[in-house]
Amino acid sequence: xxxxxxxxxxxxxxxxxxxxxxxxxxxxxxxxxxxxxxxxxxxxxxxxxxxxxxxxxxxxxxxxxxxxxxxxxxxxxxxxxxxxxxxxxxxxxxxxxxxxxxxxxxxxxxxxxxxxxxxxxxxxxxxxxxxxxxxxxxxxxxxxxxxxxxxxxxxxxxxxxxxxxxxxxxxxxxxxxxxxxxx
Length: 183
Prior knowledge:
The chain has four helices and nine strands; from the N terminus they run E-H-E-E-H-E-E-H-E-H-E-E-E. By secondary structure, it is an alpha+beta fold. The protein has a single domain, classed as Cyclic phosphodiesterase (Cyclic Phosphodiesterase, Chain: A, Alpha-Beta Complex), CATH 3.90.1140. The longest helix has 16 residues, at 11-26. The radius of gyration is 17 Å and the shape is globular. Keywords: Hydrolase.
C-alpha cells in the first residue's frame, strides 16, 4: 500500500485554498488541482509499504510523537517549487508554527527507520496545484504578490495520521489508517 504521514487542515482553510485554486484557474494556468478532501500537509512520504510493516511504523510514530504538545499553525502566502520562474508545484506556506512542524517531521523521520524512505529535507507547505505546462508564469507572479499577506487561517495541530493513497485514473483517493494524538 502507498502511504504517507500527514496533518489535516480545517474546512475553513481548505475552503480558502479553493479560492486560491479559482484564482489560478481564472488566469488560465493548466494545472491538476488538489481536491478539497485531499488537501493536507505531508510530514513524510513513505511510499509502498507492506501491511506487515505498518505495525513497526505505527510503533515508531508513537515513540516520535511522545511528549509533543499540540501547537498552532497559520497558513499564509503562496509560492512555487522549484521556483516562481520554473513552477511545477504551487503551494501555500506555513507561517506560524513552522518550527514546531519541522521538529515534528524531524522526530518522525528519525524514528521511522524501517528502511530508507524519502530523505528530502522537510519544507512545510500545502500543495494546491501541479502545473501541466509552464504557461502564464507572469500571472503566477501576480497571484503570489496578491496572496503574499493573505491568511488562509489557523489550526491547532493535535494529531498526525498515517494515510493510504490509492492512485486512480481520476486522481488519488486518500484513506486514514492510523491516528496519533499529540499531548
